[in-house]
Structure prediction request, 180 residues.
Amino acid sequence: MTDMTYNTILLSRDNGLATITLNAPDKLNAVSRKMIAEIKPCWEELAADSSVRAVLLTGNGRPYAVFTPYKNAWLREVNDFYLRSYPVERHAAALAPLPQGLPPGVPELAAIGFETTNLRALKIATGTQGARGLFEDFVERIDRYHQARDFPAIKGPSYLSVHLRFGTLSIRQVARVAWQ
Prediction:
């Protein structure tokens, strides 16, 4: 799908996430009739794009700009279902089929844009075992997180972001433990 060209907004897509950015810096991004006229077809373009899986907006219809409204919305909605492991087995048939001509097996990291690194020398915890170790370490200090997270000299953050991003640790597992 080819993106339409817009003058007062920018549309970008990355891994199923679309971002619409106001693009009238000379007018301090003030909303104009022209901008409003471009936003509707932009939304229609995104609605027709099956690669864009979700649009995340605040309760008043605007995108989240800071974490607090998202956190507050999540806290209002969280319940036992969201903290349990998700029953994915019954939904496996809904997955899209693999594209034709795809080589079998897991691709080499270089084939998907990664470069050889010195992770072993850096002693970075990798894989599910590394994630488990970091998580167990974080659980011991989770009650102090709010006090230590903003100080680089203190072991405050969880260091779990990369594991949550790549699925070597379950977000539901982390949420379940944090919720207790």
